[in-house]
Amino acid sequence: MTKLNENDIRKKLKYLEGWDLVDRQIERNFTFDTFLDGIDFVNKISKIAEEQNHHPDLDIRYNKIKCRMMSHDVSSITDRDFNLAQALNFIY
Question: Is the pTM of this model over 0.70?
């Protein structure tokens, strides 16, 4: 698995709606109408994360879900993070 450098990460972020580079991870905040809508989103993305064996860090605050990702096994951002982020955007 190839670690991406900051220049590559910033290039890829231009094509990934809503995501930013924060503290050496990619991050996006998702907002929903209700708490249960947010929880439904978490349940949907948890299945994909499990299938990919790649799990984002999630912070749930009422109707706001913050997702942060990096590939912990290599302590860096990789294409795997961008693939999962695209899947999360599609579900959202």
Answer: yes
